[in-house]
Design a protein that fits this description.
The protein is an alpha+beta fold. It folds into three domains: 78 residues, Phosphatidylinositol 3-kinase Catalytic Subunit, Chain A, domain 1 (Ubiquitin-like (UB roll)); 102 residues, Acyl-CoA Binding Protein (Up-down Bundle); 89 residues, Pleckstrin-homology domain (PH domain)/Phosphotyrosine-binding domain (PTB) (PH-domain like, Roll). Helix content is 43%, strand content 20%. A five-stranded mixed sheet has the order 2-1-5-3-4, with helices on both faces. The chain has a four-stranded antiparallel sheet with strand order 6-7-8-9. Helix 4 packs across helix 8, helix 5 crosses helix 7 and helix 5 packs antiparallel against helix 8. The chain is globular, with a radius of gyration of 25 Å. One of its GO terms (molecular function) is actin binding. It is a peripheral membrane protein. This is FERM domain-containing protein.
């Protein structure tokens, strides 16, 4: 028995947990995960920590061998090809985009995360935006950060440290100095007086959602003739672009017009609902890219169908809560404005009396 105990004592204890670092658009969080956890267990934990209920837009992204991919929900975290790090690092990002931001993004946290992600994509030039539109968007970003414009506080130079414009715009266009750009942004910013910070973020997103590259995931593909093309997947469908034009697709397949998407090894096939229409086949050199395309197609199609059904009880409740919250804030802002006016009137009255 003694020998048996000794041998057991020598056996190394296996760790029961592993550490994970999750980076959101404005924070870093660390979690301790159980070895047996699936992707969904970790994802749900992150959503709870953020107080996020609109979970269907988001995913946990990571990079392996220079390519980004998303953590699978139904598979054990440790059984997936994740980076060999301690802690393992994931980015919590929007994976799917709404068709109409104002109707679909109900929670403030959801709006906030989308605002930060889209703003970064515009600044990093992943979404192209004209110089004029970037100035208007920048002014809403300033309103979202600072609240109402106050000429006594927001003096020239107060935006000097802010990253508000894509480098291409700030450097190359119009031969304008940083001060001139700031003046342009401040002029728009002053116009936004009375717009609440959360409204400013929503106004930003409403402009951004009309940009051609908004919400599109692009992938390099080849057609049957070996021509290099780009495939774009978004909330509305699948689009095929020339390699040097990400704005206007040569061909589009709306989700409502697609019968089926399938892949075998490197070949993907899109079958239209109209059986007389041409079946579109294309190739991607990497199996992983094909799997990612298919994953994004399935997720976007599911959301497309979901939007066209009657709202679930959960969504109905969230919409009602969002309306109540909006009304409450409006009343609060009205009272604030009224008390501000009252204070000014008292000051004026006091001044005339003296």
């Amino acid at each position: 028995i003694g020998g048996c105990v000794a041998r057991m004592g020598l056996k190394k204890k296996q760790p029961k947990t592993f550490k994970v670092k999750v980076i959101t658009m404005d924070a870093e969080m660390e979690f301790s995960c159980e070895m047996k956890w699936k992707g969904k267990d970790l994802f749900d934990l992150v959503c709870r920590a953020l107080g996020l209920r609109e979970t269907w837009f988001f995913g946990l992204q990571y990079t392996i061998k220079g390519m980004y991919t998303w953590l699978k929900m139904d598979k054990k975290v440790l059984d997936q090809e994740i980076p060999k790090e301690d802690p393992v690092s994931f980015r919590f990002l929007a994976k799917f985009y709404p068709e109409k931001v104002e109707e679909e993004l109900l929670q403030e946290i959801t709006q906030h995360l989308f605002f930060l992600q889209v703003k970064k994509q515009i600044l990093d030039e992943e979404i192209y935006c004209s110089p004029e539109a970037t100035v208007l968007l920048a002014s809403y970003a300033v309103q979202a950060k600072y609240g109402d414009y106050d000429p006594n506080f927001h003096e020239p130079g107060f935006l000097a440290q802010e990253e508000l414009l894509p480098k291409r715009v700030s450097i190359s266009h119009y031969q304008m100095t940083a001060d001139m750009w700031e003046e342009k942004i401040s002029a728009w910013y002053a116009e936004h007086r009375g717009i609440a910070r959360d409204e400013a973020k929503m106004n930003y997103l409403k402009i951004a959602q009309d940009l051609e590259m908004y919400g599109v995931n692009y992938f390099p593909i080849q057609n049957k003739s070996d021509t290099d093309l780009l495939l774009g997947v978004d909330a509305k469908g699948i689009h095929v672009y020339s390699i040097n034009n990400r704005f206007s697709p040569n061909k589009s397949f709306e989700w409502s017009g697609i019968r089926n998407i399938s892949y075998s090894e490197k070949e993907l096939t899109i079958k239209p609902l109209d059986k007389k229409a041409e079946v579109f086949k294309f190739f991607s050199s990497q199996l992983k890219v094909n799997k990612l395309i298919l994953q994004l197609c399935i997720g976007n199609h599911d959301l497309f169908m979901r939007r066209r059904k009657v709202d679930s009880i959960e969504i109905q409740q969230m919409k009602a809560q969002a309306r109540e919250e909006k009304a409450r804030k409006k009343v609060g802002r009205g009272k604030q404005a009224a008390s501000g006016t009252e204070a000014v009137e008292k000051l004026v009255a006091g001044g005339t009396g003296s």
